[in-house]
Amino acid sequence: MWKRVFDGQADWKYVLAALAVVSVIAWVGARLARRATAAAMSGVIGGALVSQSPLVRGPLRLVSSAAFLLIFAVLLFPALELTGLEPRTGLHLRELSTWSYEKGLPLLATIVICYALVRITGLLVTRFEHELNRGTSLDALERAKRARTLGSVINKVVTIALTSVTLLMVLTAFGLNIAPVLTGAGILGLAVGFGAQTLVRDIISGFFLILEDQVRVGDAAAINGVAGTVEALNLRTIVLRDGEGTVHVFPNGAIQTLANRSKDFSYYVIDLGISYRENPDRVSAVLREIGAEMQADPAYAPWILEPVEVLGVDAFGDWSMVLKMRIKTVPLKQWEVGREFRKRLRRRFDQEGIQIPFPERVVTVRDDDGDKLDPEALGG
Predict the structure, then answer these.
(1) Radius of gyration of the chain (CA)
(2) What angle do CA 351, 352, 355 make, to 5 degrees?
């Protein structure tokens, strides 16, 4: 049996040493394959299964055993050939050397470059997150969250793309025909594109929604006519809670209109109805005085960005004219400032004797000749 497989004589000490070296190399390769598979499974299933679960340990054992047997089988005969034996079957040392120089070294360089690019991408993403995370304000925290979301997407996309290309190059280097793989991937991608086009649209829309910083968590916004506070901003959906506590979930691809009411700053607008008997200039002066008082108040001064802006008479109603004004505030503080302003406005109107208009109707009575009659005469 031995003569059918090998020719020549060899020292058994060298044979055992060669077997030991091949076994160690195969064991190291199997461990690396196990770790790579475990990392890939962790990225796919996340925390759905624990590492000690049979559903996880079974595939890892299979990959480890297959990698060990494959590496051992490939290196066994070249190692024995080094001891003086001449195997009649299997992979010869000359073939292994030729493959190593022609394909092995370029393949190793490709794997190293792929790993380096993945690591560089991770470092750039980390630097990007660090730059946006400077400061302790709420705005800095929101920027950091936005950076983490975008960084995670970019990191995963680059890693998957580079790993896929490297895997195809590895298969080609080992002489495997990748044409069926590419064809199957193309068909699968086409099927996924048709079947999950809504999902892809939502993800792409969410990516640009976060990239352009159109809305952030905590903003007061109106989406498709529904107003509320943004509670979560994901790649696929945005979660909005309205004033009644109802949670609305909108797919990012289905957003037709988005109105952000707390982007950089906010305005509290008041359409103030005043009597036709009042002087608009006098009322405007009172409004500006109330705004100046609030800006001098330490409780409200940090929230008011500019003095009260009185735009003037905006409309004429049946029994009042409308005086429009607005207060520029920091985001999400416009309602609190506006309520306090209205309370002080009511108190100040009482002090100044400015009347609050109410519906009234003027009735004119005329005789048959069209002359206006005296109401007191009629009453007498």
Answers:
(1) 39
(2) 105
* 131 CB-near residues (< 8 Å, 6+ apart): 147
Query: Any idea of the CA torsion for 82, 83, 88, 94, to the nearest 10 degrees?
Result: 10
Q: Calculate the alpha carbon distances from 38 to 24, 57, 68, 161, 170 in Å.
A: 21, 9, 16, 19, 20
How many C-beta neighbours within 10 Å does residue 362 have?
Answer: 5
CB atoms within 10 A of CB 20: 11
User: The tokens of 250 are what?
Assistant: 């909108």
- What are the average pLDDT values for consecutive 10-residue runs of the chain, which has 380 residues? 53 74 85 80 57 69 82 73 63 61 71 82 77 58 66 77 81 74 74 72 82 79 88 84 88 88 83 86 89 88 87 84 89 86 89 79 65 56
Residue 99 has what pLDDT? Answer: 60
Can 209-260 and 266-352 be said to share one CATH topology?
A: no
Question: Phi/psi class of residue 353: alpha, beta or left (left: φ > 0; alpha: ψ in -120 to 50)?
Answer: left
Cα angle, residue 142 at apex, residues 141 and 148 outer, rounded to 5°: 90
Could you tell me the two tokens for 68? 């060990």
Question: From residue 131, how far is each of 154, 211, 263, 292 by CA, in Å?
Answer: 16, 15, 21, 38
> For 165-221, what is each residue's pLDDT tens digit?
888 777 777 677 777 777 777 777 777 666 667 777 888 888 888 777 788 777 888
Residue spans of the domains in the chain: they are 2-139, 209-260, 266-352
The token duo for 323 is 């005086």
Q: Residue 239 — φ and ψ, nearest 5°?
A: -110, 130
102 burial level (CB within 10 Å; 0-12, 13-18, 19+): exposed
Of the candidates 317, 339, 338, the one whose C-alpha atom is nearest the C-alpha of residue 326 is 338
Candidates 63, 67, 99, 93; CA nearest to 78 is 93
Tokens (6 digits) for 288? 């500006």
- Bridge partners of 228, per DSSP, are 221
Residue 110 has φ and ψ, to the nearest 5°, of -65, -45
pTM recorded for the entire structure: 0.51
Which two three-digit tokens encode residue 336?
Answer: 């609190």
CATH class of the domain at 266-352: alpha beta
CATH architecture of 209-260: Roll (2.30)
